[in-house]
Structure formats: C-alpha cells, structure tokens
C-alpha cells in the first residue's frame, strides 16, 4: 500500500468581481487527508473526523471526485480516504473543494502523475457538482494550481493561473452561521443589465491587470461587485459594517467569500491584514454570534504533502 498525508487548502472564490471565475488559495487554513492506494478495487471513505459527513462514496465529494479520476485511468485500483475536516461545511471558504481537490491531487501523486493539474480540476469539479448542484471551478482551481486563478471558459474548461504578488494577505471572518451554496445561488437573478455586465467585466480585467503589474490601487478599485453582492449580502449579518471597518483600516477591498457567510478582506501587508482582523473582530463581538478570523498569505502552491 502506498499512502500520503496532505494539506488541502481553503480558498476564497469570486473575489467580488469574478463570480464563478476568480479564486485564490489560502495558506493557514485547510483540511488534512490521508490517501492510500489499495489492491482492493474501488473507492472507500474509511474515516472522517471534524464533521458529520457521509462515508458513502457516492455521497461524499472526495469519493465522487476520485471516482471521476479512476474512470479515466487505464488500470483498476483501489483508493482509501481519511478526511480530517478543519474547514467548516457551509463556511464559504471552499470546504467541499478542499476535499475534492485534495483527494484527486493525492491519488494523482501516488499514481506518478498520469493527469495534468488542469485535468484534475475537471475531476474535482464533480465533487463540487455533488455539493452544490453546479460544477464550478473557482474553488478547486486555486486549491490545485495555487495562487490566484481565472476560469476563462467552462465549455471547454480553460483555467489560467495568474500572478500572485508576494505582499497580498487575506483576512477572512467566518460567522458561525450556515449559508448553503445552493441557497445562496437561489437568491441570484438569472439576468443582468448590459450596464451591470460592462461594469463587472471591466473590474475583472482591472483586477487581473493589477495582479500582474502589482498595481495595488488598481486591485483595490477592481474589487467591486455590482451583480452578486447586493443580493447575497443580505444573508450575512453586519456585512456592510464589516466592509466599512476593513476599508477604514486600509484593506484594498472587501467582499463575500464564495457563497458566504465568510467575508474576505484583501490587504497589501500582514500588518494591515492584522489591523483589519482586529477591526472586524470589534464589529462582530457586538453581534453575540460565534465567529472565527483567519489571516493568511496567498498559498502559491496549493495542495501539499505534510508529515
């Protein structure tokens, strides 16, 4: 039996202007998984700690993702999966994506890399489809490729790894309420005006340009969402006050992480990110809700082996 233990990172998707196409990978929060190859064919979830998730392979995102990989592999093998969840389900920082991406990355590693990282994104998307009903890639892509990623197209799938400036640090507050991805998608209108679309794709272009040129003012101006945030923000307590507090402390921008309820703030330095964390801590202390705050540099590697 061949086995490895991995860190499967949390991710922040959408990044305000890039609904379903932009995402980035975090460095200090993520799941741990142990993946083993077996002579007994099939995929088995043998252990889950830290969350009440199904052991049934076909009802577990990691199991479904690995089954998609094995369906494209030339030999029949077995895979055993242990999951140690440290990302809370429904947190908005890619809990299902971490399990899906981590599992396929590890199996691919143990099989001596028969598939490219971009092909692994396709397999991991099957886990996302199980979790939310939609095979989106904006979480699994950065988890697998690291750094910031852009999904240029879904048909055919075309994922691009973007430049990651070293100075960028993410502050994320996770209120201890659950906003299911499926519920958060249900509040989104299916049609937008041409004016909104022009505004939004201008921000996407500006954000990507800002990353490559390390123009932090441009990054900040581009972290604006005129389509999704106005509808989803009503599901998140104190969202506007958190955003105001983050910007007041020098954050480049602030928005909803994935489908929420987590809120992200992107800053140019660790000091600013910590100040932002202190400011939003004060806002949420008044709510009486439990919450976690994560401060993390951008993880340019993605999934990685740990001891």
List the helices and strands and how they pair.
Blueprint (H helix, E strand, L loop, with lengths): L2 E11 L8 E17 L3 E8 L11 H10 L7 E7 L10 H16 L6 H16 L7 H6 L2 E7 L2 E5 L7 E7 L5 H6 L7 H20 L2 H7 L6 H4 L6 H10 L4 E4 L6 E5 L2 H16 L5 E7 L6 E2 L2
Parallel strand pairs: 3-4
Antiparallel strand pairs: 1-2, 1-11, 2-4, 2-5, 5-6, 7-9, 7-10, 8-9
What is this entry, summarized?
It is globular and about 55 Å long.
Explain what you see.
The structure is a single chain. The chain is α+β, with helices and mostly antiparallel strands. Helix content is 36%, strand content 26%. Helix 2 runs antiparallel to helix 3 (117-132) and helix 6 (194-213) runs antiparallel to helix 7 (216-222). The longest helix is centred in the middle third of the chain and has 20 residues, at 194-213. It is globular and about 55 Å long. The protein starts with a strand and ends with a strand. The model has no long low-confidence stretch (mean pLDDT 95).
